[in-house]
Specification:
- The complex is a heterodimer of chains A (91) and B (440).
- Chain A is mostly helical and 91 residues long.
- Chain A is built from five helices and no strands.
- Chain B starts with 7 loop residues before the first helix and ends in a 6-residue tail after the last helix.
- The chains are: A mainly alpha (91), B mainly alpha (440).
- Chains A and B meet through α1, α2, α3, α4 and α5 of A and α1, α6, α7, α17 and α18 of B.
């Protein structure tokens, strides 16, 4: 087990048993240990980097038409609903 | 340094991950499940909000025990299909839904999705406060105090500055949605009729007509709404779920769908006596339903009903406001985590509280035409779902986003099926409005 993980587990155990003020102190201590946090959140860091590397997706004409159709569908249906509600309330 | 921001958010997430990894290593299965459930249960029980429970009440009072019991089960199965996708997207990308739309489809669609969501969420939040006020009113609490108390109570849940603690508190509160189960039992239902309806999907009193379609649409809107996609994916990424947790994420979502479906069916069963006794409950609100049920479920049952609507509004208001804040923070590229303090995520909490205060304030305005809002929200959720499902399916099939966790052809068939079903329901509704004389 890596030393960083051991430290993190030890801090966790201490934090769990400690009153909330002490838990906050443990959390603050962990904030100042980027290597420990980095080790534990390896997967999260990698995913973060991958997401930030995402570029705009190339949309085929068919997909563009579908997206615009769906959006115009929402606008149209919202008008229909509002008209219906006004008619219902006035009747 | 491996992490970009070793702030409170990452430190809290690291602690949470260590607990999960410990539980996994030590094979503490029940503890591991407890640690990982949350987003799915919250989103599903949160969707059983005040207007949804009133929609189910209207269903039970107009149709009794029959077609709509298995129909509600079907709608929650459809909700599971959509929500499971958000678990995969959130666990693999560690990113919220709005941010993924922004990154892959551009600023226009990202802002469109966010504004769309904020608008519909504001309308929905108004109806939640209507439910809170109505539920509290049954116990003689004035509207102003009910709104104030609700905002304070919801606000307190955010003071923990820990996603984990906030999640536990709201999850426990959300379980009170199951209060409709004892009410259903108090109504002394015909259990044989319940079993018969689940198998045969019948009876459907009055057959297929415009009213049936409107009730169906209302029930679909009570189960599947766009805010759920944004909330669950945001919560999954805020909670820090990893790819290893996918199975538990699915269990969490399925459990939430099951509990919510049971509560919804219980609500229909609880109000079925009104149908049996030919009571016209089409325009009933919370207080009228609670009072009308007293002869059949007793004063305790009536009080529990009002309490159930109040709780439904509270939990939903919390979840919906949070989904708005997540979407705003993701698109505006600002801090958006419940692991951050108010000072560290000012805009996140500002959007959250602004949504609550504005909508709560609207409900408190005398003579505000709330009936317009309630009627609109009841159907607008299902109408805004097709584009939300469209983007969802595009993202889950995006190899650059989810890699090998993208949809199989079978899951695509199910996802497209849900989208088509919801779209057709909306189109049918439009037909009944545009052509009122049109008959099925």
């Amino acid at each position: 087990m890596m030393q960083n993980e051991k430290e993190a587990i030890l801090m966790l155990e201490e934090a769990r048993l400690a009153p909330s003020a002490e838990r906050e102190m443990r959390l603050d201590r962990l904030r100042r240990q980027p290597e420990v946090v980095g080790e534990i959140l390896k997967e999260h860091v990698a995913s973060q980097q991958q997401t930030e590397g995402l570029t705009l997706r190339k949309l085929s004409p068919g997909v563009k038409v579908m997206i615009w159709f769906l959006r115009l569908y929402v606008v149209f249906m919202t008008v229909v609903v509002i008209v219906n509600v006004i008619q219902t309330v006035h009747s | 340094m491996a992490v970009q921001d070793v702030g409170r958010e990452n430190a809290a997430r690291a602690l949470d991950r260590t607990r999960v990894d410990n539980a996994r290593k030590n094979r503490k299965k029940i503890w591991l499940l407890w640690l990982l459930i949350g987003p799915g249960i919250l989103v599903m029980l949160g969707e059983n909000d005040a207007p949804s429970m009133l929609s189910y009440s209207a269903t039970g009072s107009q149709f009794g025990i029959g077609f709509f019991l298995p129909f509600v089960l079907l709608t929650f199965a459809m909700a599971y299909i959509a929500q499971e996708i958000t678990v995969r997207l959130g666990a693999v990308s560690k990113t919220g839904h709005a941010e993924l739309i922004y990154r892959r489809f551009g600023r226009f669609w990202g802002n469109f999705a966010m504004i769309d969501l904020l608008f519909t969420n504001l309308l929905t939040l108004v109806t939640e406060f209507v439910g809170i006020v109505a539920g509290a009113g049954y116990f003689g609490i004035p509207a102003g105090w009910a709104v104030f108390g609700a905002i304070v109570l919801i606000g307190v849940s955010y003071t923990f500055r820990r996603y984990w603690t906030w999640e536990r508190v709201v999850m426990i509160l959300s379980l009170s949605n199951l209060v409709f189960i004892p009410i259903a039992i108090m109504a002394h239902p015909n259990w044989g009729a319940i079993g018969h309806s689940l198998i045969t999907w019948g009876p459907l009193p009055g057959g297929w007509n415009s009213n049936t379609i409107i009730i169906m649409l209302s029930d679909i809107g009570a189960t599947i709404t766009p805010w759920m996609l944004f909330f669950q994916q945001g919560a999954v990424s805020d909670k820090g779920l990893s790819i290893k947790d996918l199975t538990h994420g699915r269990i969490d979502t399925a459990l939430g769908a099951f509990l919510a479906a049971v509560a919804a069916m219980a609500c229909i069963i609880a109000t079925a006596p009104l149908y049996i006794h030919h009571m016209n409950a089409a325009q009933f609100g919370t207080a009228q339903f609670a009072q009308a049920l007293v002869p059949y479920v007793g004063h305790v049952g009536g009080a529990l009903f009002a309490l159930g609507i109040l709780e439904a509004g509270l939990v939903a208001a919390t979840a919906i406001a949070t989904s708005s804040a997540y979407a705003y923070g993701e698109v505006r590229r600002q801090a958006h985590s419940l692991n951050r303090s108010f000072g560290e995520a000012k805009s996140f909490y500002a959007v959250l509280f602004a949504a609550l205060v504005v909508t709560g304030g609207i409900v408190a305005i005398p003579h505000f035409p709330l009936e317009y809002v309630v009627l609109i929200v009841n159907v607008i959720a299902v109408l805004t779902m097709p584009p939300a499902i469209g983007f969802l399916l595009l993202l889950i099939n995006d190899k650059e986003v989810v890699g090998k966790y993208r949809n199989t052809w079978f899951l695509n068939v199910l996802g497209i099926g849900v989208g088509v079903f919801v779209s057709l329901a909306g189109l049918l509704y439009a037909m009944t409005i545009i052509f009122p004389n049109w008959q099925l």
